[in-house]
Amino acid sequence: MNLTHRKYTFTLIIQYFCLLFDVGVNSFLTFARSNPADLLVLFVIQDFCLIIALTILLANFFSTYVFQAGLIQLLYTEFRSTLVICVLYIILSISLHSWHMTVHWNSPFLHYWSITYHALLTTQRSIAVLYYYLSKRTSLQISDPKFHESSAWVQNQFRFK
């Protein structure tokens, strides 16, 4: 087992833990609704996990041979949708959490859902599905050896650059 394999195993475990925690909070949020302080802690940890997952993803990009060879545009075009969805999901999640805590802090069982709050919740949960899929796919793709060593694929990309 070489160093690269161990590194990616460790980063995959952390990324998958963050994804599972996010799924868990999104799925079982209503069970913590009675205590707003617990809900706030869950939201802060969830947002922290999202930022950690994005940071690990970017660190994995920066450690590739393709990035170090100066083919940043290639990585960007290859993983653009993942980066955009990750950032969008973080923004939507933080917005939803802030709004939820503002509305439900004093009266956690009040069912005040305006149309815009419902739209934000629906959008955030819809983007979450894309986020889970693209994060998992990208974390597996970035460990492909073609990104970490000089190969015919990288040489062809230099020719087209």
Automatic annotation (TrEMBL):
What InterPro entries does this protein's entry cite? Answer: TM_138
Where is the chain membrane-spanning?
Answer: 12-33, 39-67, 79-99, 111-134
GO terms for cellular component: cilium; vacuolar membrane
Where is the protein found, in the record's own terms? Cell projection, Cilium; Vacuole membrane
Enumerate the UniProt keywords alphabetically.
Cell projection, Cilium, Cilium biogenesis/degradation, Glycoprotein, Membrane, Transmembrane, Transmembrane helix, Vacuole
Secretion signal: which residues? Answer: none
Report membrane topology.
Answer: Multi-pass membrane protein
Q: Which GO terms describe its biological process?
A: cell projection organization
Note the Pfam families from the entry. Answer: TMEM138
Record's superkingdom?
Eukaryota
PANTHER family per UniProt: TRANSMEMBRANE PROTEIN 138
Similarity comment: family membership: Belongs to the TMEM138 family.
* Function, in words: Required for ciliogenesis.
Q: What is this protein called?
A: Transmembrane protein 138
Q: Which organism is it from?
A: Trichogramma kaykai
